[in-house]
Amino acid sequence: MAHAHKVFDQIPDPNVALWNAMFRGYAKNEWHREVILLFCRMKSLDVMPNCYTFPVVIKSCGKINALVEGEEINCELIKGGFRANPYVGTTLIEMYAGGGFIGAAHKVFLEMSERNVFAWTSMINAYILCRDMVSARRLFDLATERDVVLWNTVISGYIELGNMVSAQELFDEMPNRDVMSWNTMLNGYARNGNIKACERLFEEMRERNIFSWNALIGGYAHNGCFFELLGSFKRMLVEGDVLPNDATLVNVLSACARLGALELGEWVHVYAESIGNKGNVYVGNALIDMYAKCGIMENSLNVFSSMDVKDLITWNSIIYGLAMHGRGVEALNLFSQMKNAGEKPDGITFIGVLCACTHLGLVEDGLSYFQSMVDEYQIVPQIEHYGCVVDLLARAGLLDRAVNFVKEMPMEADAVIWAALLGACKIYKNIELAEVALEQLVVLEPKNPANYVMLSNVYGDLGRWKDVARLKVAMRDTGFEKVPGCSLIELNGTVVEFYSLDERHPETEEIYGALTGLTKLLRSSRYVTALMELGIGA
DNA sequence: CTAGGGTTAG
Fold it and tell me: PPR repeat positions in this chain (predicted)?
C-alpha cells in the first residue's frame, strides 16, 4: 500500500475510479481508518463519490464501528440518490447490524426500492446476529428469492442457538444442498455434542472437501474422542482425495498431546512441513504444546525458536510447557522476553507464570505477579488464577495463608481449589484442614470418589486405619466407583492404555514376567523404591 | 472497480 499510495500521490487529478482503487486497497489490508480518512480527503478536493465508492467505505465504517462517520455517509448518499443501489443498501444493513442497531438496519431494508437475495440475506443475518431467530425465520419465509447461501445462513442461525431440530428440518426441506450445507450440519452436530449424528451425516455425503473432514475431526476433538480422531485422520490420508490443512493438523496434534502419541506427533511434524506448513503459526503452536505434553521440552523449544512469526498463543504455550516441567526459571525468562517482544500477556499467560512460581516455591514473586496482572494489565482474575495462588501458598506449606486467601476471594471456592488444599494437606499432614476440605468437596462433587481417596491417603500416612476403613464405607455408600487412573503408551503406531495391575493385554503373562525379572535385578543391585518397601513393586 | 455462507492452537 505504501508504494500504491506513492504512485497515487503523483497523479495530478485522480478521478473517482482511482480514489476507489485506493479505498479498496486499504480495505483489503484492513486499514479501515485510512479508508475513512482518505474518503474525507477526496470530498475536501470536491471529487464526487460514485456508486462504487460507498459500499467499500461503509464496510470500513462497519469494521471499526465508526458509526458516526457511517451516519454522515448515509446522509450523503441519500442526497446523492444512491440509496436505490442494491450494493449500497446491503452494506448499510451490514454496518448497522454489526453495530447492534437492528432498527436502523431494518429501516434501510424497508426503504430499499428493490430487494434482491443479497439484501434479504443480510437482513436475515442481521436478526441472526442479535439472536432473534423468530424474526429471521419470518423474513426467510417471506423472501421472494432463496438461494443456497440464504438457506445455509438460516440453518447456521438455528445451530448457533443449539436448535439442531429446526436446523435439520430446514436442511431436509432444502431444494439444492451444496457441500457447504452438509458441512454446516456436520459442524452443528459436532459442536452440539451429537457426534453420532455427525458421523452418520458424514457417511451419507457423496462429495467431501477439507471442511467436511475438519468438521468430523473437530467434532471428535470437541467431544474428547481422541482415538476416533486419529482413526479418521489416518482414513483421510488413505482415501487421499483431500489434503489435510493447518486446521486438520492442529486437531491431530492436540490429540497426540492428549494421548501422549509422540511418534505420531513427530511424524505429523515432518508431514506438516512436507505439505507446506512450515512457518504456520497455528501448526507451530500445536507442535510446541504436543512436544511439551509428551515430555520432550527440547523439541518444543526448537520449534519455538524456529518460528519467525509468533503470537500470544506461541508464548503462552512455551511458558506453560516450561512451567509444567519444573523449568520455572526459563519460563519466567521467556515471560520477560515476551513483554520485550511487544506481546501483551493475557489471563492464560499468568496461569503459566503463576504455575512456574509454584514449582519454584517463589511465593512472594508469585503474589507480586498476581498483583501486576491486575494493576499493570487490567486482567480480571478468574477462579483459575485464584486457584493458582491457593496452590502456590499451599504447596509452600503456608496453609493458613491459603485458607485466608480462599476466604477473601470474591467468588466461592470451587472443587479445584479445595482439591489443591487437600493435596497440600497430604504433603504437610494437616488432618484438620483435610477434613474441612473433604466436607466441601463432598458437596461440590458428590459423584467423585477420588476426593475420599485423597483424605483416606492422609489418614493412611498418619496410620489412622480406622478412619481409612470408615471412609471406605462412606465411599461405597455413595454408590460411585473410583475409575482407576490409566496410563497410555504408544506401541507400533497405536496408543494402548493400561492401569495398575491391568490384565487386559493379550500378552499379560509375558509383560508381568518381564516386570518381575526387572524387579529382581533391581533388588539384587539394592535399588529399593518406596513401592517395593510396601511390598507392591514385585 | 462493488454485496451474503464453513474448520484450527494455549
Answer: 15-49, 147-177, 178-212, 311-345
Question: What are all long-range contacts of A398-406, with beta carbons under 8 Å and residues at least 24 apart?
Answer: A398/A363, A399/A424, A399/A425, A399/A428, A399/A430, A399/A433, A403/A433
- Residues 122-141/A with CB within 7 Å of nucleic chain B are 122, 125
Residue A265 Cβ under 7 A from any strand B atom: no
- State the total domains in chain A: 2
Residue A129 CA to B2 C1' — how many Å?
24
- Give helix then strand counts, H and E, for chain A: 31, 2
| Half-sphere exposure for A120 (CA within 13 Å, toward CB) | 21
Residue A478 lies in a domain: yes
**Same domain, yes or no: A407 and A482:** yes
Please give the C-alpha separations between residue A15 and each of A18, A43, A50, A57, A448, in angstroms, as whole numbers: 5, 12, 11, 16, 72
Distance CA A231, CA A436 (A): 45
Q: pLDDT tens for residues A392-401?
A: 999 999 999 9
pLDDT in tens, A351-398: 999 999 999 999 999 999 999 999 999 999 999 999 999 999 999 999
Q: pTM of this prediction?
A: 0.86
SS (H, E, C) A176-202: CCCHHHHHHHHHHHHHCCCHHHHHHHH
pLDDT digits (tens, 9 = 90+) for A129-143: 999 999 999 999 999
* Domain membership of residue A422 as a residue range: 394-487
> Domain of A470: which CATH number?
1.25.40.10
Q: What's the Å distance between residue A56 CA and nucleotide B1 C1'? A: 10
Same domain as A522, residue A472: no
